[in-house]
Amino acid sequence: MTAFFDLPVRRFKANGIEIAARVGGSGPPLLLLHGHPQTHAIWHRVWPALTRHRTCVAADLRGYGDSDKPAASADHAAHSKREMAADMVGLMRALGHERFEVLAHDRGARVAHRLALDHPAAVSRMMLLDIAPTLDMYEGTTRAFAQAYFHWFWLIQPAPLPETMIERDPVFYLRSVMGGRPGGLAHFSAEAMAEYERTARLPGWATGICEDYRASATLDLEHDRAGRAAGERLRLPLRVLWGERGAVGRNFDVLGLWRRIADEVSGGALPGAHYLAEECPDALLEQAGEFFGWRQEPRDPPMRLFPG
């Protein structure tokens, strides 16, 4: 099996732009989506086990990594989760996958949430890592959450303030955000950090991440409110996992909030803070194997089920 970082990063036309992704493994398709301020390299520690059971597509969101970085728009529509979700549907269709599973972290999990709402026939089941629903997190913001997630409120300031400051030293910004959580930078491999730092220096990266958050604080909330008013719900099996040392579980009733808008929810805390695929890959793989339903092998760790 080809090692993760030895696999080529391929580019695929999707939704009018190009999306970068690594593809490997065999079996049913599984879409992997990363969060801020990283790339699809977050999956490198769980990739060998996942690709034994699934055809994995690890993609960079638009604005991040090696994917295209569209220009900002006044209404932030170019970076809405609706548009990012359409990118991923287009990517999977380009690979011949009309229906697939999703495993997504952080910003990618917000894209996955919108993807499952807008394209319900495309997603069979979904695992989301370390998020509560975006609308509930904004409406339930406390001082403790705002201090822990300061970047949510700084990145949405009008351009070019945050972009200019980030572009002066993008690696300092990246290391400050990632290293500011429990455990600091010790969780991350040298190869992964090199990828995160390389792509943070790419033109358009600062604009992409700021517009992602501006869209979440404006247009995405409009989409969420309109959907809830219309009775929109997630109808697929959903598992949500969060870090027991992280801010999401401390500040929100994660399962309670998801159960308000989804029919079939299970989940619980893992022994990490936020970057679960890199902090506690074995615990994540236990949950992935049980939830996605592949046959347990002797070399896999024993599975543990959280109650539904």
UniProtKB/TrEMBL annotation:
Domain AB hydrolase-1: 28-174
GO molecular function, one term: haloacetate dehalogenase activity
EC category: hydrolase
Annotated Gene3D superfamilies: alpha/beta hydrolase (3.40.50.1820)
Annotated EC: 3.8.1.3
Keyword vocabulary terms for this entry: Hydrolase
Matches recorded under Pfam families: Abhydrolase_1
InterPro entries: AB_hydrolase_1, AB_hydrolase_fold
Superkingdom as given in the UniProt entry: Bacteria
Protein name: Haloacetate dehalogenase H-1
Phylogenetic lineage: Bacteria, Pseudomonadati, Pseudomonadota, Betaproteobacteria, Burkholderiales
